[in-house]
Amino acid sequence: MRKRASLIILSLLIFFASSVFANGLSLNSIGTRAIGMGGAYIGLANDYSAIYWNPAGLTRVQGPQVSIFVSDIMPTGTYKFDTYGINAEMKSNHYISPNIMGYLPLFCGEKLFVGLGAFVPAGLGAEWEGSDLAAFSGPAGTAYEWMSKIGVFNISPGVSYKVSDKISVGAAMNVFYGMMDMKRPVDSNEDHLMDAQYEESGSGLGYGLSLGLLVKPIDMLSVGLSFKTKTTVKFEGTASNTAFQASNAADTDYERDLAWPMWIGGGIAFCPTKKLTITADVQYSKWSETEEKIVTDYKNNVWAGAMSEEDRTMVLNWEDATQIRFGSQYKLTEALAVRAGYYSDPAPAPDETVNIIFPSISYNAITAGASYCLGKVSLDLGLEYLMGSDREIAQSALGNMPGTHGMSIVVASFGLTYSFK
Predict the structure, then answer these.
(1) How far is residue 68's CA from residue 83's CA, in Å, rounded to a whole number?
(2) Which residues contact 411 (CB under 8 A, 6 or more apart)?
């Protein structure tokens, strides 16, 4: 039975991973149950998503299982700049993020446990109506395209070892496949008006590591620690700029390194009764080490000769950010559980580098969810509503986009888990 379950899980993972694609906005939570609990999951980590939150938690999963979950991210963004008479709204896109995770205990599940996940851990993006921003092109009012989509698809094998009944440790390898698309107007004459269209598309690989510790000093309390290394994705792709058409050099290959930050978190899970679970996390991302600036190496000689290092550099100066998360779960019956949560998510971008291509908003998020178990099958639902705080941005020498930036996001996640036990 164990061998058969292993083959089914592995086959599903390989098939699903070949068809998955990244979403265009950042995911704050991985796993439908974790979403419902506000992503406060490091100290609990008792389902398939432990491979992301805290790989030490794989020791807590009850038998071999496979789970498929899909998240739909629906952003609503606004940008106002009265000086240019701009009142723009982001396109109402649905960013679909399908994921799959499998889990298999080895050696009779006594000490060593192994899991495998294929999921979308991070991304960022936006798309705007060019006609709403035509005032940036001067009197001609050309409607250039404005969009970005940066996503990561992660294949993550993980292992956990049960040191004792109270202590577990775990590790997972993160194999990042990154995708990056961008379209934006550029100023070729340095007259502060947009007069050319820039486009690019690229992809690349990066490798990182996750480590976890889970301690259960008493039956009603568990404490977890989780750590992810900085992961650099080396992007390669092609870019075009209509400003170079006259030189027969509109297209070029490019290279760029883009890193996801070191991340560390700690959490607790408290179960005062058999029906109620309360969780709390603190999660820290060291953005200042990875998103200070992004430098692009353009391979075409015409581009290289015409563009200074300043032209090839996007200054971000992102700051470190700490998220505070709370979650709860209550079992109404043995088959039905309901969840709720809250978290704060501060914007990493300072005012002097904010722009609408890479939106950066501080959010207060409320979450809800539920699960219903039908024998070996469990159905899960998770919902998030991220309430963004409008940012009033003044003009900066670093070339930000002054004005009022706003954003709210709705996330719906649906999951299905099959247990082979």
Answers:
(1) 48
(2) 27, 29, 35, 71, 72, 73, 74, 382, 383, 384, 385, 386
Residue by residue, pLDDT tens for the chain (421 residues) are: 455 554 544 444 444 443 333 333 455 678 899 999 999 999 999 998 999 999 999 998 877 888 888 888 888 999 999 998 999 999 888 877 777 777 666 554 678 888 888 888 877 778 999 999 999 887 777 889 999 888 888 999 999 999 999 999 999 999 999 999 999 998 877 666 788 899 999 999 999 999 999 999 999 999 999 999 999 999 999 999 998 888 888 899 999 998 888 999 999 999 999 999 999 999 999 999 888 888 999 999 998 888 888 888 888 899 999 999 999 999 999 999 999 999 999 999 999 999 888 888 999 999 999 999 999 999 999 999 999 999 999 988 677 899 999 999 999 999 999 988 7
Rounded CA-CA distance 69/98 in Å is 6
CB atoms near residue 101 (< 10 Å): 29
Give this prediction's pTM.
0.89
Quick one: which of 59, 53, 164 has its CA closest to 104? 59
> E strands within 271-362?
276-285, 293-298, 313-315, 321-331, 336-345
Structural domains of the chain in order of their starting residue, each with its CATH number:
2-73+97-127+148-419 (2.40.160.60)
DSSP state letters, 346-401: ---S-GGG--SSS----EEEEEEEEEEEETTEEEEEEEEEEEEPPEEE---TT---
> How far apart (Å, rounded) are the C-alpha atoms in residues 382 and 367?
7
CB crowding 204-220: b at 16 or more within 10 Å, else e: bebebebbbbbbbeeee
- Segment (H or E) for 7: helix 2-17
- Phi then psi for residue 309, to 5 deg, are -60, -35
Q: Give CA–CA dist 307/360, Å, rounded.
A: 27
Amino acid sitting at position 361: I
Beta bridge partners of 45: none
